[in-house]
Design goal:
Length: about 160
């Protein structure tokens, strides 16, 4: 994929229904925040985790309208279309070096977050391809979820470490 001089993708077309998906995501964050007290959830610790196209949506939410912005995001093998503002949500970013679709996007996401002065953590695994998930595959990417949990714990977003 060609890159512009800014380091952002030269052209990453929106997927069908993306605008509505972002609206749904914003509504979901607002709904959870509104019902947080009733559900025993801290309204200041609401996050979004997105994979691939879902990571693009999570980015849109993390840099979008402040009223519906999550307090943190997990961006798993996703990308970026626009600059990151200084008040974006902190990000946990993970991808595999052998990702055939978005091979450099995780590093570019991290660089954009850091350039904006926003906290971010980057994990690039040697193997895992585009689409590693929670199922063990015998690669280092098998541990991404544990590292995400530890990241949330270190940021005070959760109180206990969950281990598989």
């Amino acid at each position: 994929m060609a890159r512009a001089k800014s380091g952002l993708p030269a052209k990453v077309p929106p997927f069908a229904g993306e605008k509505h998906a972002v609206e749904d995501g914003a509504r979901a964050v607002a709904t959870v925040r509104h019902g947080a007290a009733r559900w025993g959830i801290d309204p200041g610790k609401i996050g979004v985790l997105g994979f691939s196209a879902g990571a693009f949506l999570a980015v849109d939410l993390a840099i979008g309208d402040k009223a519906s912005r999550p307090d943190f995001v997990g961006l798993i093998y996703g990308g970026l279309r626009t600059p990151v503002p200084a008040d974006a949500s902190p990000a946990f970013i993970a991808a595999a070096a052998d990702d055939e679709f978005l091979p450099n996007d995780a590093a570019q996401l991290y660089a954009a977050w850091r350039q904006a002065g926003v906290p971010a953590e980057l994990h690039v695994y040697e193997h895992g391809g585009h689409g590693f998930d929670l199922r063990p595959k015998g690669t280092t990417s098998d541990r991404w979820f544990d590292e995400f949990i530890w990241w949330m714990q270190a940021r005070g977003l959760i109180e206990t470490v969950w281990s598989r």
